Amino acid sequence: MTTQTATQTPTSVSFLGLGAMGYPMAGHLVKAFDSVMVWNRKFDKANQHESEFGSKAVDFETAVSADVIFSCVPTSAQTAELIERAKPYLKKGSVWVDCTSGVPESAIAAANTLQELGSHFIDAPVSGQTIGAINGTLTVMVGGDKSALDFAYPAIDCFAGRIEHVGASGGGFAVKAINNTLFAVNSWALGEGLSVLKAHGVNPSAALACINHSSGQSFASSATFPDRIVNRSFPKTFTLDLMAKDCGIATDLQQQAKLPAPVMAAVASFMRAASNQVEAGSADFSEFIKFLENWSQVIISDEMTTPKN
Ligand code: NDP
Question: For the chain, which end, N or C, has fewer CB atoms within 10 Å of the first or last residue's CB respectively?
Protein backbone atom coordinates (compact mmCIF):
# COMPACT_ATOMS: atom_id res chain seq x y z
CA MET A 1 0.00 0.00 0.00
CA THR A 2 1.25 3.44 -0.93
CA THR A 3 2.15 5.84 1.89
CA GLN A 4 1.87 8.95 -0.25
CA THR A 5 -0.73 11.57 0.61
CA ALA A 6 -2.65 13.80 -1.77
CA THR A 7 -1.71 17.50 -1.62
CA GLN A 8 -4.16 20.29 -0.70
CA THR A 9 -4.77 20.96 -4.38
CA PRO A 10 -4.52 18.12 -6.88
CA THR A 11 -1.38 18.03 -8.94
CA SER A 12 -1.86 14.68 -10.66
CA VAL A 13 -5.07 13.50 -12.31
CA SER A 14 -5.92 10.32 -14.15
CA PHE A 15 -8.76 9.00 -16.26
CA LEU A 16 -9.84 5.36 -16.51
CA GLY A 17 -12.17 4.40 -19.37
CA LEU A 18 -11.56 6.25 -22.61
CA GLY A 19 -14.86 5.47 -24.31
CA ALA A 20 -17.22 7.71 -26.26
CA MET A 21 -17.42 10.05 -23.24
CA GLY A 22 -14.17 9.45 -21.36
CA TYR A 23 -11.87 9.98 -24.32
CA PRO A 24 -12.87 13.61 -24.99
CA MET A 25 -13.44 14.38 -21.27
CA ALA A 26 -9.89 13.32 -20.40
CA GLY A 27 -8.60 15.44 -23.28
CA HIS A 28 -9.72 18.61 -21.47
CA LEU A 29 -7.69 17.84 -18.34
CA VAL A 30 -4.41 18.77 -20.04
CA LYS A 31 -5.64 22.39 -20.13
CA ALA A 32 -5.22 22.67 -16.35
CA PHE A 33 -2.82 19.91 -15.25
CA ASP A 34 0.76 19.08 -16.21
CA SER A 35 0.37 15.47 -15.13
CA VAL A 36 -2.62 13.82 -16.82
CA MET A 37 -2.47 10.03 -16.83
CA VAL A 38 -4.80 7.89 -18.91
CA TRP A 39 -5.57 4.19 -18.81
CA ASN A 40 -7.93 2.09 -20.88
CA ARG A 41 -8.63 -1.64 -20.86
CA LYS A 42 -7.84 -1.82 -24.58
CA PHE A 43 -4.59 0.02 -24.16
CA ASP A 44 -4.26 1.26 -27.76
CA LYS A 45 -6.81 3.94 -26.93
CA ALA A 46 -4.62 5.24 -24.12
CA ASN A 47 -1.65 5.47 -26.50
CA GLN A 48 -3.87 7.22 -29.05
CA HIS A 49 -4.98 9.68 -26.35
CA GLU A 50 -1.38 10.45 -25.44
CA SER A 51 -0.58 11.21 -29.10
CA GLU A 52 -3.69 13.33 -29.60
CA PHE A 53 -3.81 15.32 -26.35
CA GLY A 54 -0.38 15.10 -24.73
CA SER A 55 -1.64 13.04 -21.80
CA LYS A 56 0.47 10.10 -20.53
CA ALA A 57 -0.65 6.52 -21.14
CA VAL A 58 0.27 4.62 -17.98
CA ASP A 59 -0.32 1.23 -16.39
CA PHE A 60 -3.30 0.77 -14.09
CA GLU A 61 -1.30 0.86 -10.84
CA THR A 62 0.26 4.21 -11.74
CA ALA A 63 -3.05 5.71 -12.91
CA VAL A 64 -4.85 4.96 -9.66
CA SER A 65 -2.11 6.57 -7.57
CA ALA A 66 -3.14 10.05 -8.79
CA ASP A 67 -4.61 12.76 -6.54
CA VAL A 68 -7.86 12.72 -8.54
CA ILE A 69 -8.92 9.57 -10.37
CA PHE A 70 -11.77 9.74 -12.88
CA SER A 71 -13.64 6.70 -14.15
CA CYS A 72 -16.24 6.52 -16.91
CA VAL A 73 -17.31 2.96 -17.68
CA PRO A 74 -20.67 1.44 -18.68
CA THR A 75 -22.08 0.48 -15.27
CA SER A 76 -21.36 0.50 -11.54
CA ALA A 77 -20.29 -3.14 -11.80
CA GLN A 78 -17.21 -2.15 -13.81
CA THR A 79 -16.45 0.75 -11.46
CA ALA A 80 -16.55 -1.69 -8.54
CA GLU A 81 -14.09 -3.99 -10.36
CA LEU A 82 -11.73 -1.07 -10.94
CA ILE A 83 -11.90 0.04 -7.29
CA GLU A 84 -11.22 -3.48 -6.07
CA ARG A 85 -8.15 -3.70 -8.29
CA ALA A 86 -7.00 -0.19 -7.30
CA LYS A 87 -7.18 -0.63 -3.52
CA PRO A 88 -3.48 -1.36 -2.86
CA TYR A 89 -2.28 1.60 -4.93
CA LEU A 90 -4.55 4.47 -3.85
CA LYS A 91 -2.95 7.57 -2.37
CA LYS A 92 -4.39 8.69 0.98
CA GLY A 93 -6.57 11.77 0.57
CA SER A 94 -7.15 11.09 -3.12
CA VAL A 95 -10.61 11.54 -4.62
CA TRP A 96 -12.18 9.03 -7.02
CA VAL A 97 -14.67 10.79 -9.30
CA ASP A 98 -16.96 8.29 -10.99
CA CYS A 99 -18.56 9.80 -14.11
CA THR A 100 -20.30 6.54 -14.98
CA SER A 101 -24.12 6.72 -14.97
CA GLY A 102 -24.32 4.34 -12.06
CA VAL A 103 -26.43 2.87 -9.28
CA PRO A 104 -26.91 5.02 -6.14
CA GLU A 105 -26.42 2.06 -3.75
CA SER A 106 -23.10 1.26 -5.42
CA ALA A 107 -21.95 4.84 -4.85
CA ILE A 108 -22.67 4.51 -1.13
CA ALA A 109 -20.73 1.22 -1.00
CA ALA A 110 -17.80 2.69 -2.93
CA ALA A 111 -17.71 5.79 -0.72
CA ASN A 112 -17.56 3.56 2.39
CA THR A 113 -14.84 1.37 0.89
CA LEU A 114 -12.68 4.31 -0.08
CA GLN A 115 -13.22 6.07 3.24
CA GLU A 116 -11.80 3.00 5.02
CA LEU A 117 -8.70 3.36 2.85
CA GLY A 118 -8.31 7.09 3.58
CA SER A 119 -9.58 8.17 0.16
CA HIS A 120 -12.91 9.54 -1.06
CA PHE A 121 -15.46 8.59 -3.70
CA ILE A 122 -17.95 10.95 -5.31
CA ASP A 123 -20.55 10.00 -7.89
CA ALA A 124 -20.38 12.55 -10.68
CA PRO A 125 -22.34 11.38 -13.71
CA VAL A 126 -22.57 13.71 -16.67
CA SER A 127 -25.16 14.89 -19.14
CA GLY A 128 -24.67 16.58 -22.50
CA GLN A 129 -23.86 13.68 -24.83
CA THR A 130 -20.59 13.23 -26.70
CA ILE A 131 -20.83 16.71 -28.20
CA GLY A 132 -20.87 18.16 -24.66
CA ALA A 133 -17.83 16.04 -23.80
CA ILE A 134 -16.00 17.29 -26.89
CA ASN A 135 -16.90 20.92 -26.19
CA GLY A 136 -16.26 20.65 -22.42
CA THR A 137 -19.78 21.80 -21.56
CA LEU A 138 -21.14 18.82 -19.63
CA THR A 139 -23.53 19.11 -16.71
CA VAL A 140 -22.01 17.23 -13.77
CA MET A 141 -24.35 16.12 -10.98
CA VAL A 142 -22.39 15.27 -7.88
CA GLY A 143 -23.27 13.16 -4.86
CA GLY A 144 -21.02 12.69 -1.85
CA ASP A 145 -18.72 14.57 0.46
CA LYS A 146 -18.65 18.29 -0.37
CA SER A 147 -14.98 18.72 0.65
CA ALA A 148 -14.03 15.88 -1.72
CA LEU A 149 -15.88 17.70 -4.48
CA ASP A 150 -14.10 20.95 -3.59
CA PHE A 151 -10.74 19.16 -3.90
CA ALA A 152 -11.60 17.64 -7.28
CA TYR A 153 -13.47 20.71 -8.56
CA PRO A 154 -10.62 22.24 -10.62
CA ALA A 155 -10.27 18.93 -12.48
CA ILE A 156 -14.01 18.40 -13.05
CA ASP A 157 -14.31 22.01 -14.16
CA CYS A 158 -12.09 21.25 -17.18
CA PHE A 159 -14.94 19.46 -18.98
CA ALA A 160 -17.99 20.97 -17.29
CA GLY A 161 -20.43 23.71 -18.18
CA ARG A 162 -22.19 23.26 -14.86
CA ILE A 163 -21.28 21.41 -11.66
CA GLU A 164 -24.02 20.84 -9.12
CA HIS A 165 -23.62 19.21 -5.71
CA VAL A 166 -26.99 17.49 -5.29
CA GLY A 167 -26.53 15.74 -1.94
CA ALA A 168 -25.04 12.71 -0.24
CA SER A 169 -23.46 9.68 -1.96
CA GLY A 170 -25.71 8.28 -4.67
CA GLY A 171 -27.55 11.56 -5.21
CA GLY A 172 -25.72 12.30 -8.44
CA PHE A 173 -26.48 8.85 -9.86
CA ALA A 174 -30.14 9.23 -8.85
CA VAL A 175 -30.53 12.59 -10.59
CA LYS A 176 -28.84 11.22 -13.70
CA ALA A 177 -31.16 8.18 -13.86
CA ILE A 178 -34.29 10.31 -13.49
CA ASN A 179 -33.00 12.84 -16.03
CA ASN A 180 -32.41 10.18 -18.66
CA THR A 181 -35.76 8.59 -17.93
CA LEU A 182 -37.47 11.94 -18.49
CA PHE A 183 -35.60 12.16 -21.80
CA ALA A 184 -36.79 8.65 -22.66
CA VAL A 185 -40.38 9.57 -21.74
CA ASN A 186 -40.25 12.68 -23.95
CA SER A 187 -38.69 10.71 -26.80
CA TRP A 188 -41.20 7.89 -26.64
CA ALA A 189 -44.19 10.27 -26.40
CA LEU A 190 -42.89 12.31 -29.32
CA GLY A 191 -42.52 9.12 -31.37
CA GLU A 192 -46.17 8.32 -30.65
CA GLY A 193 -47.27 11.87 -31.47
CA LEU A 194 -45.42 12.01 -34.78
CA SER A 195 -46.76 8.56 -35.76
CA VAL A 196 -50.31 9.83 -35.28
CA LEU A 197 -49.58 13.03 -37.20
CA LYS A 198 -47.94 11.19 -40.08
CA ALA A 199 -50.87 8.77 -40.25
CA HIS A 200 -52.99 11.89 -40.78
CA GLY A 201 -50.71 13.03 -43.62
CA VAL A 202 -48.57 15.56 -41.72
CA ASN A 203 -44.88 15.79 -42.62
CA PRO A 204 -42.77 15.06 -39.46
CA SER A 205 -40.28 17.90 -40.06
CA ALA A 206 -43.12 20.39 -40.50
CA ALA A 207 -44.71 19.09 -37.31
CA LEU A 208 -41.39 19.41 -35.43
CA ALA A 209 -40.95 22.99 -36.68
CA CYS A 210 -44.26 23.84 -34.98
CA ILE A 211 -43.66 21.78 -31.83
CA ASN A 212 -40.22 23.37 -31.36
CA HIS A 213 -41.90 26.78 -31.13
CA SER A 214 -44.71 25.51 -28.95
CA SER A 215 -45.28 24.05 -25.52
CA GLY A 216 -44.55 20.46 -26.58
CA GLN A 217 -40.89 21.31 -27.23
CA SER A 218 -38.17 19.21 -25.60
CA PHE A 219 -34.58 18.14 -26.25
CA ALA A 220 -36.05 15.15 -28.06
CA SER A 221 -38.00 17.40 -30.45
CA SER A 222 -35.27 19.98 -31.01
CA ALA A 223 -32.29 17.64 -31.30
CA THR A 224 -32.89 13.90 -31.21
CA PHE A 225 -35.69 13.63 -33.75
CA PRO A 226 -34.42 16.11 -36.37
CA ASP A 227 -30.74 15.16 -36.02
CA ARG A 228 -31.01 11.37 -35.65
CA ILE A 229 -34.44 9.94 -36.40
CA VAL A 230 -36.25 11.85 -39.16
CA ASN A 231 -33.09 11.84 -41.29
CA ARG A 232 -32.58 8.14 -40.41
CA SER A 233 -28.89 8.73 -39.56
CA PHE A 234 -28.90 7.12 -36.07
CA PRO A 235 -25.28 8.12 -35.28
CA LYS A 236 -24.04 5.76 -32.57
CA THR A 237 -22.93 8.03 -29.69
CA PHE A 238 -25.01 6.74 -26.75
CA THR A 239 -26.15 3.18 -27.02
CA LEU A 240 -29.65 1.89 -26.49
CA ASP A 241 -28.53 -0.60 -23.84
CA LEU A 242 -27.06 2.27 -21.78
CA MET A 243 -30.36 4.16 -22.05
CA ALA A 244 -32.29 1.04 -20.96
CA LYS A 245 -29.85 0.66 -18.04
CA ASP A 246 -30.45 4.24 -16.88
CA CYS A 247 -34.25 3.83 -17.05
CA GLY A 248 -33.89 0.59 -15.07
CA ILE A 249 -31.99 2.43 -12.33
CA ALA A 250 -34.84 4.95 -12.13
CA THR A 251 -37.38 2.12 -11.90
CA ASP A 252 -35.44 0.57 -9.03
CA LEU A 253 -35.42 3.94 -7.23
CA GLN A 254 -39.17 4.19 -7.69
CA GLN A 255 -39.64 0.71 -6.21
CA GLN A 256 -37.33 1.44 -3.28
CA ALA A 257 -39.34 4.58 -2.49
CA LYS A 258 -42.61 2.60 -2.88
CA LEU A 259 -43.95 5.31 -5.15
CA PRO A 260 -46.25 5.01 -8.11
CA ALA A 261 -44.59 6.29 -11.28
CA PRO A 262 -46.44 4.43 -14.04
CA VAL A 263 -45.31 6.62 -16.95
CA MET A 264 -41.61 6.24 -16.14
CA ALA A 265 -42.05 2.52 -15.46
CA ALA A 266 -43.82 1.93 -18.77
CA VAL A 267 -41.24 3.82 -20.79
CA ALA A 268 -38.42 2.01 -18.95
CA SER A 269 -40.03 -1.25 -20.09
CA PHE A 270 -40.34 0.02 -23.67
CA MET A 271 -36.66 0.98 -23.71
CA ARG A 272 -35.72 -2.41 -22.27
CA ALA A 273 -37.83 -4.19 -24.87
CA ALA A 274 -36.30 -2.12 -27.69
CA SER A 275 -32.79 -2.74 -26.35
CA ASN A 276 -33.42 -6.48 -26.15
CA GLN A 277 -34.11 -6.55 -29.92
CA VAL A 278 -30.51 -5.60 -30.73
CA GLU A 279 -27.06 -6.73 -29.70
CA ALA A 280 -25.65 -4.73 -26.74
CA GLY A 281 -23.60 -1.79 -27.96
CA SER A 282 -24.77 -2.09 -31.56
CA ALA A 283 -27.51 0.57 -31.74
CA ASP A 284 -27.81 4.25 -30.88
CA PHE A 285 -30.46 5.09 -28.26
CA SER A 286 -32.52 6.84 -30.95
CA GLU A 287 -33.10 3.45 -32.59
CA PHE A 288 -35.78 2.81 -29.96
CA ILE A 289 -38.02 4.39 -32.62
CA LYS A 290 -37.70 1.25 -34.80
CA PHE A 291 -39.37 -0.74 -32.03
CA LEU A 292 -42.28 1.74 -31.93
CA GLU A 293 -42.42 1.81 -35.74
CA ASN A 294 -42.76 -1.94 -35.75
CA TRP A 295 -45.91 -1.54 -33.66
CA SER A 296 -47.37 1.44 -35.53
CA GLN A 297 -46.17 0.52 -39.02
CA VAL A 298 -45.49 4.25 -39.47
CA ILE A 299 -41.90 5.25 -40.24
CA ILE A 300 -40.84 8.59 -38.72
CA SER A 301 -39.19 10.05 -41.81
CA ASP A 302 -40.26 12.77 -44.23
CA GLU A 303 -40.95 10.20 -46.92
CA MET A 304 -44.74 10.23 -47.17
CA THR A 305 -46.36 6.88 -47.84
CA THR A 306 -49.99 5.91 -47.59
CA PRO A 307 -50.62 4.93 -43.97
CA LYS A 308 -51.97 1.45 -43.29
CA ASN A 309 -55.48 1.23 -41.88
P1 NDP B 1 -18.43 3.34 -24.17
O2 NDP B 1 -18.99 1.98 -24.38
O3 NDP B 1 -18.14 4.19 -25.36
O4 NDP B 1 -17.07 3.23 -23.34
C5 NDP B 1 -16.98 2.40 -22.24
C6 NDP B 1 -15.58 2.49 -21.63
O7 NDP B 1 -15.55 1.63 -20.50
C8 NDP B 1 -14.47 2.04 -22.58
O9 NDP B 1 -13.31 2.78 -22.31
C10 NDP B 1 -14.29 0.58 -22.16
O11 NDP B 1 -12.98 0.08 -22.40
C12 NDP B 1 -14.48 0.70 -20.66
N13 NDP B 1 -14.83 -0.57 -20.05
C14 NDP B 1 -15.91 -1.35 -20.31
N15 NDP B 1 -15.90 -2.43 -19.51
C16 NDP B 1 -14.78 -2.36 -18.76
C17 NDP B 1 -14.21 -3.18 -17.75
N18 NDP B 1 -14.79 -4.33 -17.35
N19 NDP B 1 -13.04 -2.78 -17.20
C20 NDP B 1 -12.44 -1.64 -17.57
N21 NDP B 1 -12.93 -0.82 -18.53
C22 NDP B 1 -14.09 -1.17 -19.10
O23 NDP B 1 -19.43 4.08 -23.16
P24 NDP B 1 -19.76 5.64 -23.03
O25 NDP B 1 -18.50 6.41 -22.96
O26 NDP B 1 -20.82 5.99 -24.02
O27 NDP B 1 -20.50 5.64 -21.61
C28 NDP B 1 -19.78 5.56 -20.39
C29 NDP B 1 -20.73 5.98 -19.26
O30 NDP B 1 -21.17 7.31 -19.49
C31 NDP B 1 -22.00 5.10 -19.19
O32 NDP B 1 -22.36 4.89 -17.87
C33 NDP B 1 -23.04 5.95 -19.93
O34 NDP B 1 -24.35 5.63 -19.51
C35 NDP B 1 -22.61 7.35 -19.56
N36 NDP B 1 -22.98 8.42 -20.48
C37 NDP B 1 -22.85 8.28 -21.84
C38 NDP B 1 -23.21 9.30 -22.69
C39 NDP B 1 -23.06 9.20 -24.17
O40 NDP B 1 -23.60 10.09 -24.89
N41 NDP B 1 -22.37 8.21 -24.72
C42 NDP B 1 -23.73 10.58 -22.16
C43 NDP B 1 -23.76 10.64 -20.72
C44 NDP B 1 -23.42 9.60 -19.92
P45 NDP B 1 -12.59 -0.63 -23.80
O46 NDP B 1 -12.28 0.48 -24.77
O47 NDP B 1 -11.41 -1.44 -23.44
O48 NDP B 1 -13.79 -1.46 -24.22
Answer: C
